Amino acid sequence: MDTKTREVLNNLKNAILHYDTEEAKKAAQDVVDKGIDPKVAIDEGVLGASSTLHERFERGECFIPHLVMAGDAMEAAGIILESAIPKEQITTKKVLVIGTVEADLHSVGKNIVAMFFRSGGFEVHDLGVNVKASSFISKAVDTNADLIALSSLLTTTRPYMREVIEEMESMGVRDRFKVIVGGGPITPEWAKEIGADGYGTDAYEGIETAKKLIGM
User: Fold this and answer.
1) Which pairing describes strands 122-126 and 147-151: parallel, antiparallel, or unpaired?
2) In whole angstroms, what is the distance from residue 212 CA to residue 197 CA?
3) Are the C-beta atoms of residues 178 and 146 closer than 8 Å to each other?
4) How far is CA 27 from the centre of its chain?
5) Whose CA is closest to 64, among 124, 129, 114?
6) What span, in angstroms and rounded, lies between the C-alpha atoms of 54 and 60?
7) Which stretches of the chain are assigned E, i.e. beta strand?
8) Can you tell me the distance from the alpha carbon of 172 to that of 169, in angstroms, rounded to the nearest whole number?
9) Helices in 18-60 by DSSP H: which ranges?
10) How, if at all, do strands 147-151 and 94-100 pair?
11) Buried-most residue among 64, 93, 130, 206 (CB within 10 A)?
12) pLDDT tens track of the chain, all 216 residues?
C-alpha cells in the first residue's frame, strides 16, 4: 500500500477515533475520489478504528457515549463507502436481520458487522439498537431471512439474546433461521449455552461463520 493511500485511510480512521462525523464523511469521500478500494477502506479505516475503540473501552479510556458517537461517524462513512462498491461485486443471495438486543444502545460493532455483510453479498435489514425479541422474529419472518444476528455490548443485556431464541422456539420458527451472536461480553461458551448456531469475535469471523452456516 503506497504512502498516499495509507494517509487517506489513516484520516478516515482518525476521524472516527475523534468521533467526528463530518470529517469521517469527508475522508470516506476522499477514498472514493482517489479510487481506493472501498472494501479496503472499510477494513483498514472503519474496522481498524473499531478495534482501537474496543481496546480503549476495555482499558476504561472511553465509555458508551463515546462509542455511540463513533458509531455515528462509522455509519456516515459506511454509507459512502458501501455505495462505491461495484455492483458486480455485490450479488445478493441471502437475507440477514441484525440488531442490538433489548436494553442495549451500542451500535459500533453492529454497524460494522452489517457493513461487512452488505459488501459480502447479503440483503441486510438493520433494526438498530434496543430491539425486542418479537421485532427480530417478525422481521425475519416478513423478509424470509436466512440469518438473525444478535449484538450485545453489556453483560447485563446478554440474557435478551437467550430470550430471542426461546421466543423463536415457543413460536415454532426456531428451525427457520440460523442465529449468530457477538459483542464485547459474548463468548463461544455463551453462544452454546443459549442455543445459538454460531459466534463471531469480530466482523470477519461473523461473516465467515454465517456463510458456513447457510452454505454460501
Assistant:
1) unpaired
2) 11
3) yes
4) 20
5) 129
6) 10
7) 94-100, 122-126, 147-151, 178-182, 198-200
8) 5
9) 21-33, 38-41, 48-58
10) parallel
11) 206
12) 899 999 999 999 999 999 999 999 999 999 999 999 998 998 899 878 887 887 887 788 988 788 778 878 888 998 899 899 887 776 657 899 999 999 999 887 888 888 878 867 788 999 999 999 999 999 999 999 999 999 999 999 999 999 999 999 999 999 999 999 999 899 999 999 999 999 988 777 888 898 899 887
CA dist 12 → 16, 23, 25, 72, 116 (Å) = 7, 8, 8, 13, 17
The set of cell numbers assigned to 85 is 462498491
Compute the distance between CA of residue 115 and CA of residue 110 in angstroms, rounded to an integer. Answer: 9
Give CATH for domain 90-214. 3.40.50.280
Cα distance between residue 100 and residue 132, in whole Å:
9
Cell matching residue 197: 448456531
pTM comes to: 0.72
Q: Where are the domains of the chain?
A: 3-86, 90-214
